[in-house]
Amino acid sequence: MGSNKLVMIGLFLLVLVLGSANASLSTEFYSSSCPKLLDTVKCTVEAAIKKETRMGASLLRLFFHDCFVNGCDGSILLDDTSSFKGEKNAGPNKNSARGFEVIDAVKSAVEKVCPGVVSCADILAVAARDSVKILGGPEWDVKLGRRDARTASQSAANNGIPAPTSTLNQLISKFGALGLSTKDLVALSGGHTIGQARCTTFRSHIYNETNELVTSFAQTRQSNCPRASGVGDNNLAPLDLQTPASFDNHYFNNLVDRKGLLHSDQQLFNGGSTDSIVRGYSSNPSSFFADFASAMIKMGDINPLTGSKGEIRKNCRSVN
Questions:
Q1: Could you give the residue numbers annotated as active site?
Q2: Nearest residue to 158 (alpha-carbon basis) of 266, 86, 264
Q3: Which residues of the chain carry a pLDDT beneath 50?
């Protein structure tokens, strides 16, 4: 009886170990089930960025906005249905989040080489990495094995994604709640070295907070973003004035020069606790690249659905 009990305990511990192994992400997750995955994603993302450079920033942002709302689970990709309001029409995403058609194209290409195997959440993670690399940024091994959420939350998106009006303390708090450090916050904000922002997101900053900005920069941005709300709301400006189509450290140089487009950008260099990190990245691009890559891996670890949780969606826009 004693030996049987020991065997049972041993089996129980083995199940526990296997269970936790199944529930963790791995860079080799699809190595046998979908060996062509990485090449397939890269080809489709490359074609999309070749067609429109800004798409790289949009795909990076999609992954960010996915992970910040109930974890990296592909929930941002779900269309609204009669039974729930998804994240696409939440404040931070409405008329703003883009690249959904590219993710559809990637999913379609992946389904051809290995049907029913790869989650939309993982496709987002790989597409974000590829976008950064294609635009000249760092490369990292993406951990995979996420499954897709069966639901999404508009209110969680409204509350979870940091607003462009955020103070430094609010940013530190939002990132900290997800296990991301202040250094991670600054490094990930460096993703704003690519892409564009809409006038509505920086209007108050360039008109009402000119004490934080170089006058010439504020004036340049005002020329394409009228003061009156409702006029030119969707007019675009580059987040990085110098090289908006290249992933580099110029974003941090801009902050040191007081040319941060968003209030939340300039908050990172405004006499606060993150000034020294910004200065470091502005003078040492390789340290920014290294920290950005490790912060992206860390962000990709936020509450993934693994094992038997969630599902592998056939269509990224709807549950099976």
A1: 65
A2: 86
A3: 1, 14-22
Q: Which residue reads 């709807």 in tokens?
A: 318
The CA-based angle 245-252-166, given to 5 degrees, is 100
Residue with tokens 């795909």: 59
Residue reference for tokens 């303390």: 169
* Number of other residues whose CB lies within 10 A of the CB of residue 196: 15
Residue type, 174: K
Identify the burial level of 96 via C-beta atoms within 10 angstroms of its C-beta, where 0-12 means exposed, 13-18 middle and 19 or more buried: middle
Residue 195 backbone class (left: φ over 0; alpha: ψ -120 to 50; beta: rest): left
Number of H helices, E strands in the chain: 14, 2
Phi, psi of 280 (to 5 degrees): -60, -45
Confidence (pTM): 0.91
| Cβ pair 65, 86 in contact under 8 A | no
Provide the b/e sequence for 118-139 (b: ≥16 CB within 10 Å).
bbbbbbbbbbbbbbbbbbebbe
Quote the distance between the C-alpha of residue 156 and its chain's center. Answer: 16
pLDDT at 98: 96
Nearest Cα residue to 45 out of 121, 127, 125, 126: 127
Crossing angle (nearest 10°) for helices 275-283 and 182-189: 50
CA–CA–CA angle 95, 101, 103 (5° rounding): 110
**Tens of pLDDT along 245-287?**
999 999 999 999 999 999 999 999 999 999 999 999 999 999 9
